[in-house]
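Incident log, entry 3
Record: Arylsulfatase (592 residues)
Problem: checksum mismatch between cached and fresh output.
Input:
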Amino acid sequence: MRPGLTILSLFVGLFFACKEHTQKPIPAQVKPNIVLIMADDQGWGDLGVNGNTNLSTPNIDALAKNGATFENFYVQPVCSPTRAELLTGRYARRLGVYRTSVGGERMNLNETTIAELLKQAGYETAAYGKWHNGMQPPYHPNSRGFDDYYGFASGHWGNYFSPMLEHNGRIVKGKGFLVDDLTDHGIDFMEKNRDNPFFLYLPLNTPHSPMQVPDAYWENFRDKNLAMKYLGDEEENENFTRAALAMVENIDHNVGRIMNKLRQLQLEESTIIIYLSDNGPNGWRWNGGMRGRKGSTDEGGVRTPFFIQWKDSIPAGKKIKQIGSALDLLPTLSNLVGIVPKTQKPLDGRNLAPLIFDENPEWTDRILFNHWNGKTSLRTQQYRLDAEDRLYDMVDDHGQAKDVAQEFPQLTDSLKKVKEHWLAEIIAFTRETDDRPITLGHPDFVYTQIPARDGIPHGNIERSSIHPNNTFFTNWKSVNDSITWDVEVLADGKFEVELHYTLKSKDAGVTLQLSHGERTLISVVTEAHDPPLTGMENDRDPRIESYVKAFKPHILGKIELRKGRNQLTLETLKMDGDEGIDMRLLMFKRIE
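Fresh output:
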């Protein structure tokens, strides 16, 4: 029988807090390791196991063959909300995550992550890749439960070949193609901790643009005829699709490297491996006929592959039809390793262990919510109420082609009320109400990076792109121009400040002043450094984000800062030429 009038009473209490989990922890003499791999902008349809014949993904497909597949698994429409929900088990808008840049991607500090829980339980923890939930401590991954972090904390990056990265806050240079490099670090971490329980989080950066991939993968796709194409009204960019699929094949290769290392270390049977993506595909391409792509709250924007393998523990080849969510990872993993998820706030996710292990699980249907950019849809086990309050039977109509709201008016009205309840409860932060400053100088951390991404330009100064995450500031024309950041210094201290800049030869000789409240630092930049923009030489399809440059580090000097909130201001006191610097970031190093 199709659900009707009872839908509101059935579901209204299920999505505000996670009920007490009744599934007992799986007994184990040794806690299992966890490897959590998440692709960036890969669609549900970008895998061979889901029916796409345009590419070959044998290693990812093997996770489905050797483990369990959730056939209806959901995340949020874009990167940072999904990552926050995965880490905390709570809806992103509860956490303060409402944007993908300039501070709106940060999780509130009174939230508990799965890494913190596992670390407390004796796990070694590491994250290698795209963090996208806060750059400055205590938002940084090192302050959210990860012992080791290597990658970039921003939302996207401008170069995937030996780029500027960070390692535990310190600026470093990557080695080779970024996904290969991140996997290398993951393999080294597993090797080093082979005798300890470990949690390895690999939030990879592809197939997010820029569309860069090594030649060996691109050559397989450069002139390839795509047998399976997007069939909607929107136009598919087939060159972009080829690049994305080549990037997925590279991911598959690296998943194979992870699995081979686990087997070599004889750890496959004692390791839980999870694979998913953070949102729908970043282009119009084949995706199982679903409506929507990245950024959309429709099925195609939020349904992701999800495979979980634990050899000899999870039934091989099991397919699970009940809806699941990134919200469920914290309670599920906590259960699987035998710890109680003691979080400061009630969870929205549920423990999936009964669905994974039981042949006839006791399971209550529920509602999952997707929200982005002012649009909200919800998914029950059978239906999706979309952002326009149209109703679709998702069992028979994955493409959301037929609105059945008039056939089921009582169900539709009930679901609309559920949505209203959820929105009234969930919208804690907006761009207009968010008053969280950028943090600087956490007493437990040496480095604080203050990037152009988080700054506000004044006067003639412009960003290198409207997409702020990987931008720099340019067009510094006057001593009246400046850049400001809303910064709270968390503890008194003395800092060495390093500027990453470029400067044309004709403009060498720029006197800069950095100030925070009454504290100032003056420095003269005399050395010219004018490298070209790069990135386009490696792009397989034109990008929309900023190109990059090889910025030069320059020690501005030392400054004593006092605890408190003020504007951090970078300004020019004197210019010997027509322009000032191009500015990428400031790095503060606590020295006292």
